[in-house]
Amino acid sequence: MRNPGHDFRLFVLVLASALTSFIAAQEARPRNSGAADWWSLKPVVRPALPDLSLSDRAWCRNALDYFVLEKLRAKGLRPAAEADKRTLIRRLYFDLIGLPPAPEEIEAFVRDSSKESYEQLVERLLASPQYGERWGRHWLDVVHYGDTHGYDKDKPRPNAWPYRDYVVRVFNSDKPYARFVQEQIAGDVLFPGTVDGIEALGFIAAGPWDFIGHAEVAESKIDGKIARHLDRDDMVTNTMMTFMSLTVQCAQCHNHKFDPIPQEDYYRLQAVFAALDRADKKYYRDPQSAKQAERLQSRLEELKRRRRSIEDQMARQAGPRLAELDAMIAAAKLAPETVRKHVEYGYHSAIEQTADTVKWVQIDLGESAKIDRVVVIGCHDEFNNIGAGFGFPRRFRIELSDDPKFARGVAAIVDRSRDDVPNPGVEPLTFRAKSAGRFVRITATKLAPRQNDYIFALAEVQVFDSAGTNIAAGKTITSLDSIEAAPRWRITNLVDGHYPVTAKQNQPSLVELQAERRKLLAGRVEAETRAALEETVAAIDAADRELRQLPAPALVYAGTVHAGSGAFVGTGANGGRPRPVHLLPRGDVKKPGPEVAPGALTCVAGLPSKFALPAGHAEGERRAALARWLTDARNPLLWRSIVNRVWRYHFGRGIVETPNDFGRMGQLPTHPELLDWLASEFRDRGGSIKQLHRLIVTSNTYRQSSTLPDGNDQPQSIDADNSLYWRMNRRRLEAEAVRDSVLAVSGKLDRRMGGPAFQDFVIEKPEHSPHYQYHLHDPEDRRTHRRSVYRFLVRSQQQPFMTTLDCADPSMQVDRRNETISSLQALALLNNDFMLAMSRYFAARVQAAAPDTLTAAVCAFRLALGREPTGDEQKRIVSYAQTHGLANTCRVILNLNEFMFVD
């Protein structure tokens, strides 16, 4: 009997030996001695083609084959034979458009004996709209795109999809790669007035976002600082992994342990994004409307500057009395014309134990309206001898939106949340607001003291349009909470049009004040000046009306300069300059080091790491500088990274098998000369991804068979993982390709492109922490039969069927899909409700086209596998169908490895 202890000791010895060898190998690799000694940081130089024999050159269809064959010959290997035409057409279809070829397309290709048939098929597939859907999905993996925020509450992002559609559109149009990169970093700056320039900014906001850390925790708190630090970290990580294949994020606590990236470089990149938040960004999809809106906005700004200039001129001519009259007239317009109410009536929040608890109350105006000003009046209450200004918040914001949850399209009217506001007593506070919206929200971010506790209270809120009408009077009020106390604090009193004022003796009426003003202007202000003001005001009103008549702007969830919402204060209209970014020793936000300026990496030779930006530069210039730096022809990482990604999706493995890490902890390239030839060809020929596809799929390397040579184990013993490409790799379909193929062969695939994502779940409790209930979804719902690229991607609760098939986690930057083998996959493919429903549709489709069971079974084989069943397969499948029914037979066919894999 064997001694278990002996086996364990042997295991420990083997493990220790392996670890020792691994550590020795790592120590032998060059460390941080500089940039020039590492392959990925060296300049891209086009290598000469290898010198092959005449017979070897005859095998090569293009330059790629030269580099591959040279490596094979060096190892004593030879390439596999070319795959048959049925295999090639299925391989091309799944690689380029992610769908199976129809039987008639296969037969036509097999019968076509012309030399051009293969190249013509490639061109047809590259021109297909489905190409963009297939390759767009690959890109969305890399940038960790999702339709929810992630984190604890994981709220939906209803406007994330325009970025997804942009990506699909870019691949279909074969936009030059440098332009594609630049648009995603700074499209609004480098390509103003374009739809792509705005929608592309969804890249910056593609990843997870901590709703609690941003919207419910003040930025002044440690948790708020951490949330914003992590948010910028995600932007930096996504940018540098996606475009540069570098793990720059490893330098946020200290200098990178393996790559020549100092900590300061990391924080320079954070500073590039220091003004950005993730939020819905308004834009016009119609270019004509966008141009009109831009023209009108520019016109309005010019007219308002002119009005201010004329008003200043009038003030100088009329003297100080004009300002006094204007103030008195404004107060008189606000004065209520009915009986005054008790000063304590209005709104009162629940009592809190801490001052920094966030409270809000909002008014539903009934419809979106143009707001001229908002007036807020404090309360009077003798509780604890407080008196005037009882409960008036020490810090607050007033915002406007068409969204009752204020999750999108938020316009800031005033932001007083950075410093304490003096108690105004019961004097009205007026805030100008040249914005439109349906909901007006007053958010208290620092409550008023009461008696060892804190509250938020108001007597009245009035909202006036440009005509001077209080459009809030009598409207519906909602709030985060309210006090359970006397009826006097009913929040309906907040908008009843009455508020406490002190009646003043001998106060002139509004009519008298206006008459005095007219007389003053007529006597002291020149007629030309008065006429100029009237003309300018009329022009402002006309331009404003024209702007309101334009179609409502669209929304895209993107990186944007945003005013913030909830407890979150952004860097929008009232938020000031980009946040200062400090180097954080050990990544500790509580111990900030020196402030850093925006810049890039010092390890890329030939490119300046510091951006020459003028003082007071616009926020977007930081991103524009980074976009230009990334796409510089001298940047070796950008060009190597993308060609390696494309190569990997075609062959199932990359030339560098760590597509997101070209640093010292990543893998070395198996074919460095081939990688540089591809990178230089791609860069120098305009960055056409479709041309890169043509090069790859027309090579003999790509067209090899995936089968092992009979009776010859030599290739397997020399290169077991096929890193030298002596044959094609057999690959399992990704989860999306499986689902789309099932829909296609069942005749249920809806090929409509673009638009909002379909939801294959029922959402519960969306107002707080949504629950995404997939088991309540009906798989026969036709709205969900679109391609999987249009599926609504939930981060926290992923779709079980797709996850079982190794679908990408939208919270992670996925450069390589997992290819696991588990019993759950077999069970899901056999028993999932979606598979059962599609099997029935598949059976109905073939039954409608076939007079008998045999013909139906043959038809099912053709649709699913692209071939005729063998004689033995016919017998077995017909026997099974007669016993178990055609639907179950179709289900078996959909579970065959031949359906799930591409040779």
Kindly describe this structure:
With 903 residues, the protein is α+β, with helices and mostly antiparallel strands. The chain has six domains: 1-30; 39-136 and 635-729, no CATH class; 186-279 and 572-604 and 621-630, no CATH class; 287-330 and 509-550, no CATH class; 339-495, Galactose-binding domain-like (Jelly Rolls, Sandwich), CATH 2.60.120; 735-902, no CATH class. 42% of the residues lie in helices and 11% in strands. The protein is built from 30 helices and 18 strands. Strands 3, 6, 7, 8, 12 and 13 form a six-stranded antiparallel β-sheet that branches. Strands 1-14 form a two-stranded antiparallel sheet. Strands 2-11 form a two-stranded antiparallel ribbon. A hairpin with a 6-residue loop joins strand 16 (762-764) and strand 17 (771-773). Helix 19 (636-651) crosses helix 20 and helix 28 crosses helix 29.
Q: How far apart are the first and last residues' alpha carbons, in Å?
A: 47 Å
Structural class: alpha+beta
In percent, how helical is the residue content?
40-55%
- Molecular shape: elongated
The number of helical elements comes to 30
Biggest sheet details = 6 strands, antiparallel
Strand segment tally: 18
- Proportion of beta-strand residues: 5-15%
Oligomer: single chain
Question: Rounded to an integer, what's the Rg over CA atoms?
Answer: 34 Å
Spans with pLDDT under 50 lasting ≥5 residues?
24-33, 336-344, 484-489, 500-505
Give the integer mean of the pLDDT values: 89
Query: In total, how many domains does the architecture comprise?
Result: 6
